[in-house]
Amino acid sequence: PSMIGHSRVLDPDFRTPQQALIMAKRLTSKAAQRLRRKDLYAGAFSLSVRTIDRIKWGRELHIPPSQDTVTFLRALDTLWDVMMYDVRPQRLKKVSVVMHRLKALGEITGDLFVDYNPDVQKQRTKCNKLSNVMDTLNQKYGADTIHMGVIPKTLSGYVGTKIAFSRVPDTEEFRE
Description:
The protein contains 3 helices and 4 strands, in the order E-H-E-E-H-E-H.
């Protein structure tokens, strides 16, 4: 794949910026899980939104190649703050998150000034271990046994995988 992402048209109760952010965090976590399952790393993260007034906004953030949930949630927080400043939305209609510039581990070229910094290495190791432990627990005991943040309570009661127009999800995605 060239990108991994999720989007959602928001239920009326999730259209405030605070509630939309909760949904965006959930979508980000799910996409990061898929990224790890495919054993890929993303070098960019994008957020796009559409307001009920039909204003569209989107930005991309380049990051060191990553696959852990914490890194992508931090990227989301950064872009969300920019969006809030630029758009100042009262009500949002749709949120989308995309991880792209995907590479396998063997295709990644390190950054001399970042990747060999012991503090950066220590932080990345902790974040990767946390994500892997969460994935292992969820595989063993069922979807959402452990997760970061709040799971949104939508009208359908479900935020999971759906069959999209552009691709058919893997069977494993329905269990995440």
